[in-house]
Design brief:
7-stranded mixed β-sheet; alpha/beta; 18 helices; 4-stranded parallel β-sheet; 33% helix; 547 residues; FAD/NAD(P)-binding domain
Length: 547
Amino acid sequence: MTKTYDAIIVGAGHNGLTAAGYLAKAGLITLVLEKRPVVGGAVVTEEIHPGYRISSVSYVVSLLRSEVIRDLELKRHGFEMIPLDGTLAVCGDDYLFLRGDAEHDRKQVARYSSVDFDNMARFDATVQAVGDVIRNQMLREPPKLDAGVWDLAALALMGLDIRRLSPELRYRLLQMLTSSAYDLIERWFDSDMVKSMYASACFSGNFASLRQPGSAIPFFHMAVGELDGEQGAWRLVKGGMGGITQAMANFARSKGADIRTEAAVENIMVENGKAVGVRLKGGEIVASRCVLANTDPKRTFLKLLDPDKLDPEFAGDIRQIRMGHSSWRINLALNGLPDIRFFKSGEEGPWHRSDMTIFPDVAGMEANFFAAAAGRLPREPRLELTIPSTVDDSLAPAGRHVMSILAKYYPYQLADGLSWDDVKGDAADGIIDYMARTMPNLPDIIVGRQLISPLDLETEYGLTESDIFHGRHDLDQLFSLRPHPRAAQYGTPHQKPLPLRFRCPSRRWCVRGPGAQRGPSGSRRFQTTLTIFKYLLKTNHLLWYRC
């Protein structure tokens, strides 16, 4: 007899697996369907060269809430975090190596400015203070624009959070939401090196000109990032990022969930406005009383669903969602450690165990954006690097290493009719040559590499237009507008709005680049809404689980 599930989850990414764990734990018959041969989505560990393993796409973790770690027993199932040893920021011939030690870091910054260490401390404290408002909103469902009773209550809670801020901090909150990153950097900092470092941090969180109003929103990454209760924390994962999703999958299976790989969903089946299951590529039909999509809005509404079954105005708006953070990934297998020209060669130092960034000055980052917007490759990309094998010897043979590189901005759509298959190898060579200015021996120690272009991020890992955030962080694509006013509460409108919504809040405002991010969905609020979920199972309403 064919099995009918209470819930089918499309995609075994980290958010989908979190939902599976909570649903299975609550006793619901749950199935996860994943098109790739492994679970994890973009949070996976893969072999890139014989004996060398690395986190292929997402490479650091934050926003993994303590409730999720505890409720899904992730540590018992093998999840282990590893701290990084500071931050190395390189801009041309200049660098800062910061370790969180005030005396050490003050001396580093003093090489460029006598006031910027204090400026940095004040700015970071301000961002943390106003970021509490944003952090609290991540635990709440965004209010609807038509403002029913519950929505008015949600707005009142947000108003109370803002009211608790001093007048100065209220001003700073509004300023950070509406100003350009360039204006804020000019307002707060003195030296070009520190300005460029903060611009680089903002640059990684969106695809926008640094002079565009609203481009300062990624500064809130500094505020909302947390890991197991520690604010601002970012960590590596033992065994690579796949350690997270393997632990999640193991927990879900232990509670009775079924997880199928190499099971690509072709479409979500809807009858009379109700979800009745999914059809897999190949024709297999799997029945379910509810469907949760661990996919971006365009893929969910325009591909998995029949757009003709949606309100035409709604479908038209979804088509216009701006995607694309213009990222691509290079992973290297190395037969030794790269020398870093600012430090003694031939020796491992704490900088090798740090979160490293290489970036141009502010003008160069602006040029980078406009080149990518025109479909052209940048001359001086912004790179973020880690060498996880320096702190995790399970990833490479003894004395060997793996290096992770995130490169921005690189266009999803290339100019002049070129394809990524045409330019991928040459573009990677250009990045290695660019890095060799800082790491002179790098080209000589590479023994293997994995190239994941923007097109590969879409076709292989399911990130539409290579967008690691499932939609840009522009002002009109956040909060109650994300992805659309009629879908911001995690439901799916058909010809008329559905009478109920499944309340499962996920990350809402802004999250850091390619790290694995877990919004609060599935934790405390998730537990309190299982009764609503069980009602939805009776009425077969289609759900869209935000990721």
